[in-house]
Design a protein that fits this description.
It is a single chain. The chain has 368 residues and is an alpha/beta fold. It has a domain at 1-29. The chain has helices at 3-28, 53-66, 87-93, 125-134, 137-146, 185-193, 206-212, 223-229, 256-260, 264-298, 309-324, 331-350, 355-366, and strands at residues 37-43, 71-76, 98-101, 150-157, 164-166, 180-182, 197-199, 217-218, 237-239, 249-255, 303-305. The protein has a 6-stranded mixed β-sheet with strand order 7-6-8-5-9-11, with helices on one face. A 5-stranded mixed β-sheet has the order 2-1-3-10-4, with helices on both faces. It is globular, with a radius of gyration of 24 Å. It starts with a helix and ends with a helix. The chain binds calcium ion. Residues 161, 219-221, 245 line the site of calcium ion.
């Protein structure tokens, strides 16, 4: 090789190395220099699914606005970046910095996650927020997720859910025996223990199964989301409220290393934006559920019914058994269970006196 050609080549390599170096610098120290970070949020919901997907998008928007664009969050619907039920691992591994889901989807990692979404005969939406923010729940949740390198925040609540859609009227516990019913998680387990034939199906498969007669009944969320799926077309008996899901919390998870690396004010932006969503999501569900319920009853002739007393009693007994089994769990799960149950015990005196006491009085004067 002639000296001149060699020099030319060397210059090219040096230039390439320099480009490589500057690209690497841009990746590693992005945007911190310019004060701008771009994060990804993976979710378990279809993008912009009413109430749930829209909550993730609004949270991302809120973080961008509150930080004046210093931290922007790009939202991925379930399956867009990773499959829905891999969202937690994606955040733990840093594939995405944030996730939006319901904690009980991760009960395969720890049964204790159920307490941060909902458990049968558990807490209402208000009570769950009270436990997380002022009853020691957040500290326990932090402890549980720290092992996975994840920082959790409460980021919404669906409020009271409905018990489900039944083709035939349920007059007593007898009518529930062997009934094929879609219900996941501990809620499903409660039904199973009172003689129901429980099946687990993703949301999108409930309607076709009900239509085909593969299942006799199924639950999803409440009037707003249920109306959208059209369950009333094949089942007219709408039982509620749900006793298995009295108020399901939503979570925002953040990769802990990414979170710890943020300046204090951006950490506070995330914390505050999540807290704002707790109220915003519940208000969204409350407003839209009431509208949808009216439409279901007046336009689609749906029969809204309470579960018969013997069904409630049997399910209550099953729920007690299910929770009691947490006594034998690992240390952190037991600690969370004990905190939750002690908090619920205090609520037994207060909540029936507060909203629970007021609502029958209002109905007595104004009608149901
Ligand atoms: Ca449900």
């Amino acid at each position: 090789m002639k000296r001149r050609e060699f020099l030319k080549g060397a210059a090219k390599s040096a230039a390439a190395a320099a480009v490589g170096a500057s690209a690497a610098t841009q990746l590693a120290a992005p945007a911190i220099a310019q004060g701008k970070l771009e994060w990804r949020m993976v979710t378990t919901w279809p993008k912009n699914f009413p109430g749930l997907g829209t909550a993730a998008s609004r949270l991302a928007q809120r973080i961008g606005d509150m930080s004046e664009g210093r931290l922007t969050v790009k939202v991925f619907g379930g399956g867009e970046l990773v499959p829905p039920f891999e969202a937690f691992d994606a955040v733990a591994q840093g594939t995405a910095q944030m996730g939006h889901a319901a904690a009980y989807y991760w009960q395969g990692k720890s049964k204790a996650t159920n307490f941060f979404t909902t458990v049968p005969f558990g807490l209402t939406a208000d009570e769950l927020a009270a436990w997380v923010y002022h009853g020691g729940g957040q500290e326990l949740w932090d402890k549980l997720y720290a092992d996975f390198g994840v920082k959790p925040f409460l980021a919404g609540n669906t409020g009271a859910q409905m018990g489900g859609w039944f083709r035939n009227e349920i007059k007593s516990l007898e009518d529930m025996q062997g009934l094929k019913f879609r219900a996941p998680g501990l809620n499903g387990e409660m039904y199973r223990r009172v003689g129901v034939n429980v099946v687990s199906l993703p949301g999108g498969e409930i309607f076709p199964a009900l239509q085909a007669g593969t299942i006799d009944a199924g639950e999803w969320v409440g009037p707003w989301n249920d109306l959208a799926f059209g369950f009333y077309k094949v089942a007219k008996n709408y039982y509620g409220p749900a006793i298995g899901e009295p108020g399901s919390g939503l979570e925002c998870t953040v990769n802990k290393e990414a979170y710890d690396g943020l300046p204090k004010d951006l950490q506070e932006v995330i914390r505050t934006a999540c807290a704002a969503e707790v109220n915003a999501v519940l208000a969204d569900f409350t407003a839209n559920n009431s509208k949808a319920l009216e439409e279901l009853v007046t336009k689609h002739e749906v029969q809204v019914r309470p579960f018969p007393d013997d069904v409630v009693e049997a399910m209550g007994k099953a729920a007690q058994e299910i929770l009691a089994e947490f006594e034998g769990a690992d240390a952190i799960t037991k600690e969370i269970y004990e905190s939750f149950v002690a908090f619920r015990q205090r609520m037994l005196a207060w909540s029936p006196l507060a909203e629970g006491g007021y609502l029958p009085l209002r109905a007595r004067v104004l009608g149901a």
